Amino acid sequence: MRVGTTGRVLHDPKGGSFRFDAGAVCLDFAHTGGEGDYAVFESLHEPADLAEWLAQPPLDATLTVPATARDLTAAKALRQAIWDAAHARAAQRPVPAEAVATINRAAAATPFIPELAADATTAAWAPPVRATQALSALAREMIDLLTGPLSGRIRECASDNCPLVFVDTSRPGARRWCAMERCGNRHKLRAHRARRATGTGS
């Protein structure tokens, strides 16, 4: 995977979009849609949508074996498990057993095999490249995240009505918002208005 290329553009069904970097590819994947109230944010409608997402950096997993409906079902189950696990860790609650089992099951699949190009300066994934391998990579990254040094930095956006979750990879560990241009600026605007209303600020 390429370094420093996490993050995706998220689209609000009510209009507008913004770039959100969850700090880990597995957490970016967790924000591709969801169940219940989050179904309106669904972006993986067909197996082809899953294949397109996986082909983007940093995974760069251009599938040589077409994704199937079964792959899509497995991807959505893993996505929900990552979401549940991240929110549990952010809230300092035990990770649900079902999420643990789903992540472990995905991680157990055969992983990608890197293949060095003839000029020995670039590499790609050796074919065949399957969706299950990509899901395995995402699950393994989530396992590393939950058990590694950044485990305590998995956080939910500090906004009262934003459920986006991220891992704070900044050196000071002071990240509070999903994105400064979204919830961070909204918070600043509300605080400014509150100060003006109480006469404590300009």
Number of structural units classed as domains: 1
**What is the overall shape?**
globular
Name of the CATH homologous superfamily = Jann2411-like domain
Supply the helix-strand structural class: mainly alpha
Radius of gyration computed on alpha carbons: 19 Å
**Overall helicity:** 40-55%
User: Overall pLDDT, averaged?
Assistant: 88
Number of helices: 6
Briefly, what CATH class? Mainly Alpha
Order of helices and strands: EEHHHHEEHEEH
**Low-confidence segments, ≥5 residues, pLDDT <50?**
none
Distance from N terminus to C terminus (CA atoms, Å) equals 48 Å
Q: Could you give the count of β-strands?
A: 6
Structure write-up:
This protein has a two-stranded antiparallel ribbon. The mean pLDDT is 88. The chain is globular and about 65 Å long. It has helices at 25-30, 47-55, 69-90, 97-107, 131-147, 180-198; strands spanning 8-11, 17-20, 114-116, 123-125, 154-156, 165-167. It has one domain: Jann2411-like domain (Jann2411-like fold), CATH 1.10.3300. It contains six helices and six strands; from the N terminus they run ββααααββαββα.
